[in-house]
Write a structure and sequence with these properties.
The complex is a heterodimer of chains A (about 300) and B (about 325). By secondary structure, chain A is mainly alpha-helical. Helix content of chain A is about 75%, strand content about 0%. Chain A starts with a helix and ends in a 7-residue tail after the last helix. The model of chain A has no long low-confidence stretch (mean pLDDT about 90). With about 325 residues, chain B is of the alpha/beta class. Helix content of chain B is about 35%, strand content about 25%. In chain B, a hairpin with a 2-residue loop joins β4 and β5. Classes of the chains: A mainly alpha (about 300), B alpha/beta (about 325).
């Protein structure tokens, strides 16, 4: 297990190198940053001088190695817009995003698990059809639209929740619910189909033959077996919730990493874009690693060497 | 049988499956008794209704199953009149079951210790520690080496034979009066099979339990059973004590089963088989259900369904012409 962990951590290094390449070159093909920094009537000479001052006239690979050197020191450059280190600015947004991600994941799991189990238990009934239909709908509706609908209902018509922004616990409910719709929608049918097949397993019959209550058989003996694929799908969604909630954070003006990234892209604030993508990648790697380790905890048959 | 007190008594058990093509009958008018401390073997081909019969007693039939019985009583208590929750409380305590597939019958995600203590603790108000001690005791009883460390293992660390021993320990955990064993040795190799059979006999004596042993293997029956019930196509066709049955099988189906086992002095290279296949549940033949496969079938066999009639003292046979067929002197 320890050896597996070390190997997994070592595997992260080449992945990180590839990520830095993608981040660096993508941003470089995105256009000339001096366009935004200089006034529209700047002369080509002025432009060239700025490019030289910023080191943008050197060959790309030299710029890349400089970039790597700086990244290793934790320096992603300063934001053109805020004149502060990009990394610090982005790191400050992470707790805000994690808060939203955590609450939405909680909403999603608290809703999806009982609904998945119940619709398996009542498969073929109108209840099952309703839940399956809702889950298809949840996957089909784009999140910006869900967000706007929720704002219309709860903020504009019912006037019980704030439209957007952050600060009070009430502010988090709508964006978290919007993200939870997206997150829960694929989990429900997964739990449902897992539970349906597991309830026919021999060990479920054994559990029943022991005289266990049916609810205990379902929630303990069957559900634990249904959990492994659920962990996978949750782990795949965590990066999207923490850093990738670009649209939802923008719709609700939630000052997290996603909104920050969108603003940076609009402003061509390339250091910020680079650091945001880099951080989101790292969150993805960590989430995947945690998922692999959680498998071991759930299922003793999964062993890593 | 007569001198034993009855433990399980089934009267007129009928089981139906609800399918897309309507209701089909899997078990027809099955009645039998098991005495206290008796080991009764229920024999028949796959799909003859023997497993469904046993699941009906446990109340564990699949959802699409409909169980109707005049009476199923265990130790004088009427199971058919019980609420599901009352029946649940008897499962694992008064009656327990072990299954054919030891590899899939234990939950892969829980330790042996958890699965064993769980069944002890739901039926007894005792502490975790006491349950654990009891579990160690049980594992010793089923001859599992290093019981303390096995308790911490997951099922995947154990061989099939070991897992079946654990299943037996789970089944015996609360001293059940009735143990139903559904082909418990079929998935095991022959040497392990012999060990498990010996263990079951031994535990049965020790706990003075009765066993309903379901199998298709007549070799196992000869080794372990006191009395044998032969089922064919959802009906009992013959019932006798093990010695009489092997000495003189009365029903042509039983005779066929015996002829299709390998005998040590058999000179033919071809193994005898029973012609034809088990009839489909949805299209049972008229008359005797065995007549399309019976080498002795006559005109009346095609029309009249024979009753299960008491013959030769304490035997039962469902055949119109059993007396004429006489039964081969087997062995």
């Amino acid at each position: 297990m320890e050896r597996y962990l070390v190997r997994r951590l070592l595997q992260v290094i080449p992945v990180l190198i590839i990520i830095t390449m993608v981040v660096f070159f993508l941003v470089n093909v995105a256009g000339d940053p001096t366009v935004n920094l200089l006034p529209l009537d700047a002369t080509p000479e002025d432009r060239e001088r700025l490019r030289e001052a910023m080191g943008l006239n050197r060959p790309l690979y030299i710029q890349y190695f400089d970039f790597i050197k700086n990244v290793l020191r934790g320096d992603f450059g300063d934001s053109y817009r805020f004149n502060q280190p990009a990394l610090d600015l982005a790191l400050a947004r992470i707790p805000v995003s994690v808060q939203l991600a955590g609450v939405s994941l909680l909403f999603a799991i608290l809703f999806a698990i009982p609904m998945g189990i119940l619709s398996a238990q009542f498969s073929g009934t109108p209840f099952d059809l309703l839940i399956s239909g809702l889950s298809v709908l949840g996957r089909a509706m784009p999140s910006f639209w869900v967000g706007i609908l929720l704002i219309l209902l709860f903020s504009v018509n019912l006037r019980i929740l704030p439209v957007s922004g952050s600060g009070t616990p009430a502010h988090i409910i709508l964006p978290a619910a919007t993200l939870a719709v997206q997150t829960a929608a694929p989990i429900i049918p997964l739990i449902r189909s897992n539970m349906l097949s597991i309830m026919h397993e021999d060990y479920i019959r054994t559990a029943r033959s022991k005289g266990l209550r049916e609810s205990f058989v379902i929630c303990i003996h069957a559900f634990k077996n249904a959990l492994v694929p659920v962990v996978t799908i949750v782990a795949l969604q965590i990066p999207g919730l923490v850093g990738g909630a670009l649209i939802v954070e923008t719709v609700f003006a939630w000052p997290g990493l996603g909104q920050f990234l969108i603003q940076a892209i609009n402003n061509r604030d390339m250091s910020i874009v680079q650091v945001c993508i880099f951080l989101i990648s790292i969150i993805t790697l960590i989430a995947n690693l945690i998922a692999d380790l959680v498998y071991c905890l759930i299922d003793p048959r999964i062993k890593y060497q | 049988m007569e001198n034993r007190e009855s433990l399980l008594k089934i009267e007129n058990l009928n089981v139906y499956f609800k399918t897309e093509n309507g209701r089909i009958q899997a078990v027809k008018d099955v009645s039998f008794e098991i005495g206290k401390g008796e080991l009764v073997a229920l024999v028949g081909e796959s799909g003859c209704g023997k497993s469904i019969t046993s699941l009906s007693v446990m109340g564990l039939t699949p959802k699409n199953c409909q169980v109707e019985a005049k009476s199923i009583s265990l130790g004088g208590r009427e199971l058919t009149a019980m609420k599901p929750d009352e029946l649940r409380k008897l499962r694992g305590k008064e009656m327990a079951m072990i299954f054919q597939e030891p590899l899939t019958s234990l939950n892969p995600l829980f330790t042996i210790g958890y699965q064993l203590t769980e069944t002890i603790r739901i039926h007894n108000q005792i502490s975790k520690k006491e349950a654990r001690d009891r579990a160690v005791e049980l594992l010793k009883k089923v001859e599992i080496p290093r019981p303390e460390s096995i308790l911490k293992e997951y099922p995947n660390a154990l061989s099939g034979g070991m897992r079946q021993r654990v299943m037996i320990a789970i089944a015996m955990a609360n001293n059940p009066t009735l143990l139903i064993a559904d082909e418990p040795t079929t998935a095991l190799d022959v040497t392990i099979q012999a060990q498990i059979l010996r263990l079951m006999r031994q535990l049965m004596k020790e706990y003075s339990a009765s066993i309903l042993f379901i199998t298709h293997d007549l070799g196992v029956v000869a080794e372990i059973a006191d009395r044998v019930i032969v089922m064919y196509a959802g009906q009992i066709v013959e019932q006798a004590d093990v010695f009489s049955l092997f000495h003189r099988p009365l029903h042509p189906y039983t005779q066929g089963l015996m002829n299709s086992t390998i005998k040590i002095n058999q000179s033919d290279e071809v193994l005898d088989t029973i012609n034809g296949v088990v009839p489909n549940l949805s299209s049972m033949p008229e008359g005797c259900r065995f007549h399309p496969r019976c080498p002795y079938a006559r005109e009346d066999c095609r029309k009249t369904m024979p009753e299960l009639s008491a013959v030769l003292g304490n035997r039962y046979v469902r055949c119109l012409h059993w007396e004429e067929l006489g039964g081969d002197q087997n062995g």
